Q: What sequence folds into this?
C-alpha cells in the first residue's frame, strides 16, 4: 500500500467522513463513552483508595463512592446500548433528558449520603 493511500496509518477508503463529521463523531463518542466511563472509574478508584488507606470510620464513605461508580458504569452501559442512532450523522444530536435526569438524581443522592456520613464523623 502506498503512502498516498494512507491517512495516519488507515486506508483512505475506510474514512468516508469529512473533517467536520469526524470532529462531530469524536464529540459524540466523548459524551457517550468518555464522560460516563471517566466518572465511573474515578468514583470506583476513589472508593477503593478510601477503603485501602483510611480507617474503618471512613469505610462507609469509600463504599458510597464505590457504589456510585458502579451505578455510573451501569448508566454508561445502558445509555450506550439504547443510544441506537446517536452515531448516525444524518440525524441531529439530541441530549437524552431522561439519562441526564437519572444521572442528576443518582449524583444528588450520593452527595446527600456523603454529606450525612461526613457530618456523623
A:
Amino acid at each position: 500500500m502506498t503512502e498516498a493511500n494512507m491517512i495516519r496509518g488507515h486506508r483512505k477508503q475506510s474514512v468516508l467522513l469529512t473533517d467536520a463529521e469526524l470532529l462531530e463523531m469524536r464529540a459524540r463518542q466523548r459524551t457517550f463513552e468518555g464522560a460516563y466511563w471517566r466518572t465511573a472509574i474515578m468514583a470506583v478508584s476513589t472508593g477503593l483508595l478510601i477503603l485501602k488507606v483510611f480507617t474503618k470510620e471512613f469505610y462507609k464513605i469509600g463504599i458510597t463512592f464505590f457504589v456510585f461508580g458502579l451505578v455510573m458504569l451501569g448508566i454508561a452501559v445502558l445509555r450506550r446500548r439504547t443510544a441506537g442512532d446517536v452515531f448516525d450523522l444524518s440525524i441531529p444530536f439530541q441530549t437524552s433528558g431522561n439519562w441526564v435526569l437519572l444521572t442528576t438524581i443518582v449524583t444528588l443522592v450520593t452527595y446527600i449520603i456523603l454529606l450525612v456520613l461526613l457530618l456523623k464523623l
About this structure: DSSP finds three helices and two strands in the chain.
